Amino acid sequence: MFFQNSDVSMRTRLCVIPTLMVMALVGVSPKAVMAQDAVVDAAPVADPLMGDDGKLKPITDQYIEMSIENLSKMYWALGLPSLDREADIDTYLLINECDMYRKFYHNDFEWQEIRRVTRDAIQKSLGTYPQKFEVIMPLYLDRYDLGTERFLIQPDSQFVGVTRLDTRYNATNEEICGSKRMLENYPRNLVLNFTSPFNLKDIPVKPEVAEFYMQEAMRQYEGLPPKLKMAAYERVAFVRLKVSMLQFKEFRRVGQGPLKGVFFSQIDGYEIFADQDKRLLMYSEDFSNGRIKRRRVGPDGVMAEDTGPIIPSDEKSLLSPTRLEQ
């Protein structure tokens, strides 16, 4: 596996040494133990990085997907719906408790009690509702620069000084509990106004990792005729922005689409993966506490960290999501 720690065999070898020392102290013969091991197969060592499907586990943290269910809770955390509005309570239940909504919505006696219980639950949970989200977008890579050890990003994927991002995570024509209508105070998608411009136009990557990535990128085109392979070949990576929501600004229509919620937000950092499933991490930056921590994966699969302060460069620029407004 590449881009991740794969040191299970090393950990296993390191554990053998203290084990033999303990056996010597208590008078147990290592040969006797080895003879027993020859009869009984040792249990396989589980790799904490591997999932049940035999692949690397996706990277997980507090930044979650922008599903309508998660967004509905964030709206309450930032005070967009109101506890005094029964329609806001009803819509919350439609999004998060569809079965209950369908069963009891037209039973006035039951529904009044459900509203009361839901209102109390929301009020108690406001401090725990999510305000941190991920935004994942494709990055189209260009040539690898051996001198600077960086992948250049294709010009169409570069953004200089991005301060506004139009997200399209949720399909606007998809039914929510049987309804396709616009949900008042619960927009399906957001426009993010960043507190600071975001910049990126290249990715620092170790040569060994870059070579492996390029080989993997070519592998998916194996079997195609040479001309078609040349025409279809792309080097695609995925950037994952880690975004904190700060404050609701307004509702706004983007183009001819439905109303979206415009929110002030800040980028806490970003990660770049070789795959959309967030299993193969190539590079990351953390903007927390007013400092930048940059990390890139080394040839041994371990993240190398620069702990010193780094001043953001004005020359760097960011990638494209769905639509940009400046």
List the helices and strands and how they pair.
Elements lengths: L7 H18 L4 H10 L28 H10 L8 H11 L1 H7 L3 H18 L6 E14 L4 E4 L5 E8 L23 E11 L1 E3 L2 H13 L6 H7 L3 E18 L5 E15 L7 E6 L6 E5 L5 E4 L16 E2 L2
Parallel strand pairs: 4-7
Antiparallel strand pairs: 1-2, 1-6, 2-5, 3-4, 3-11, 6-7, 7-8, 8-9, 9-10
Structural commentary:
- It is a single chain.
- The two termini are 40 Å apart.
- Helix content is 29%, strand content 28%.
- The chain is elongated and about 70 Å long.
- The protein is of the alpha+beta class.
- Strand 1 and strand 2 form a beta hairpin.
- Strands 1, 2, 3, 4, 5, 6, 7, 8, 9, 10 and 11 form an eleven-stranded mixed sheet that branches.
- It is built from eight helices and eleven strands.
| Rg | 25 Å
Structural class, by secondary structure, is alpha+beta
The overall average pLDDT, rounded, is: 78
- Total E-strand runs: 11
The fraction of residues assigned to DSSP E strands is 25-35%
Distance between the termini: 40 Å
What ranges have pLDDT less than 50 throughout 5 or more consecutive residues? Answer: 1-40, 302-326
Number of helices: 8
Main beta-sheet annotation: 11 strands, mixed
User: Which percent range fits the helix content?
Assistant: 25-40%
What is the H-and-E element order? HHHHHHEEEEEHHEEEEEE
Task: Using the alpha-carbon principal axes, give the shape.
Answer: elongated
